[in-house]
Automatic annotation (TrEMBL):
Protein name: Proline iminopeptidase
Residue span(s) of domain AB hydrolase-1: 36-162
Any one of the GO BP annotations: proteolysis
Catalytic activity: Release of N-terminal proline from a peptide
Broad EC category: hydrolase
GO cellular component: cytoplasm
Catalytic residues of the enzyme: S109, D270, H299
Entry keyword annotation includes Hydrolase: yes
Domain of life where this protein originates: Bacteria
Entry's Gene Ontology molecular function annotations: aminopeptidase activity
Annotated EC: 3.4.11.5
Subcellular location: Cytoplasm
Primary location class: cytoplasm
Species annotation: Candidatus Yanofskybacteria bacterium RIFCSPHIGHO2_01_FULL_41_26
Amino acid sequence: MKDLYPPIKPYAHGLLPVTDKHSIYWEECGNPKGFPVLFFHGGPGAGSSEKDRRYFSPQFRTILFDQRGCGRSRPVGCLKENTTWHLVHDAKKILDKLQIEKVLVVGGSWGSTLAFMFAIAYPHVVAGIVARGIYLGENSEIDYSAKGLMAQHFPKAWERFTSLLPSDGKKNPLAYFYKHVLPMRKKERKKKFLYEWTMFEGRHCSLQPSSDKAAKKEMAKLNRKDVEAIATLEIYYIYNGCFLKPKFILNNVHRIPRYIPISLIHGYYDVVCPGINAHRLHSALSKHNVRMNWVFSGHSKSDPEMRGKIISEVNRICREIKTTQ
């Protein structure tokens, strides 16, 4: 198993105004002359972290940014002018600012959605793709994670998650959170709901699901605004179908050049994003230069086998890109 690279600090960072409302935090790490790697974080709403930097060799020129409404971007939690397409175009604006013409795009979970959306929108910019924990933003995935199908695996955790909801709200928790929780004016009560939303998903990401005690300990590491932003943005995006037409990614992968190297990585025991969608994406890419990697892990990029495969595949694809340039 490959370990993470040593901690690294950005050599450049800033806030890029993209609208009158939103400014996007971006940073560059590693070697300014190295091959550019653009990282899409998950969520929606998770933001990028110091740990995310460590998945990439310091020989690369790694660009990380926080999507609209989360992390160090401003304003936090803002839902206005905040859709999937806005995030995709923001990434291109960052590359334009940095005068970067070609990149390897990397993303996990929601970040895998954005990586493919970016490649579909800007195929001439993408030199390769590494995507982990595949999420396509489709209704079947939304029904699974947010409407109770996941409860078949974790009934006790689901019981806790829905304990704050009235009986009619338990039939469709996602709709209740969107229609009743997000507009709540009582801040303390709203915080309780958003805390439970964030904890329910987070505790099932790893190969070994977290106990209540362990989950609370992990949640304590997050500041209150981050917890609220993650839940708010996830609810907003998921309820709105991630602002994508049905099967948008599967129906548009033909726009991505067939010759660029693509790596899909998915955990055998991923209970957050079911593996069927990784399989469907792999099938849709059958005429492309693609490799499907199944690993002994859950959804989390921190699970040892997943972590090692991400690092090795990023390195492999960068070498392949260099040999074809």
